[in-house]
Amino acid sequence: MVRVPEGEFLLGMADNQETLKFMSDLTAGMNARPQQKYYLPTFYIDRHEVTYQQFIRFKPKGRYEGGQAQEPVRGITWHEADAYCLWRGKRLPTEFEWEKAARGETGQLFTWGNDYTPAKTNLGRTVRPANDLPDDLSPYGVVGMNGNVSEWTASWYAAYPDSDLKDENFGETHRVIRGGSIQKREHGFLKEFAMLHHRNFAPPGHRFWDTGFRCARSDTRS
Predict the structure, then answer these.
(1) How far apart are CA 19 and CA 29, in angstroms?
(2) Which pTM was predicted?
(3) Structure confidence by residue, pLDDT tens digits, 8-25
(4) CB 35 within 8 A of CB 14
């Protein structure tokens, strides 16, 4: 795991940052505003996404998308991801923990900086092994947060602090999914889906061919 030290970081999307309104205002970054400094205590997060090989040790009779040992497991529900992390003595990261681990303290748009460089991650048509993305490396050394597969978080889908945005999906019905993934080109908005402030959400019992997870752990030292 990677240690992410306590302190403030820049959360969310600034009004003056480049964005493209597509599909709805919610997917254009309105649900990731206002941008603000946000404090988090020290936590730990998995360096890589949980692989198929790791997950099958927890659920030996499971059959999931892909099935290659070192690829991120995907097609799992939020409940399965949560159960796996608890089995490992960990937990799912909150979406704010996920964002800090991916963007660092200064709120860069991609794990490597602010320039859109798709060759640094996997936004193609097929998933790659979780340890095969050396350039998709966050400021804290976390791998694969900008592409390959999106990731479940612990958080319910809700408005940001001090936001007046209204959304009928807010509440304890949808969990937040973070990170870019393969095949977003099919939607025609590859860059916007890959920006690290982008928030997706889904019912926790649903399965998605492009969504996996990684675990986190609180710092329990006194």
Answers:
(1) 7
(2) 0.93
(3) 999 998 876 554 444 444
(4) yes
Tokens 């997060």, residue? 45
Residue 61 has a CB neighbour count (10 Å cut-off) of: 5
Give the burial class of 36: count Cβ atoms within 10 A of its Cβ; 0-12 exposed, 13-18 middle, 19 or more buried. middle
User: Domain-by-domain residue ranges, the chain?
Assistant: 2-218
Short-list 18, 81, 83, CA closest to 50:
81
Q: What angle is formed at CA 103 by the lines to CA 98 and CA 105, rounded to 5 degrees?
A: 105
- Give the other-Cβ count within 10 Å of 173's Cβ: 13
pLDDT of residue 121: 93
Q: How far apart are CA 76 and CA 164, in angstroms?
A: 33
Q: What does the chain come to in residues?
A: 222
Residue with tokens 């048509």: 125
With a cut of 70, say whether residue 27 has pLDDT above it.
no
In whole angstroms, give the CA distance from residue 33 to residue 165: 9
Superfamily of domain 2-218 in CATH is: paralog of FGE (formylglycine-generating enzyme) (3.90.1580.10)
Dihedral of alpha carbons 202, 206, 208, 214, sign: positive
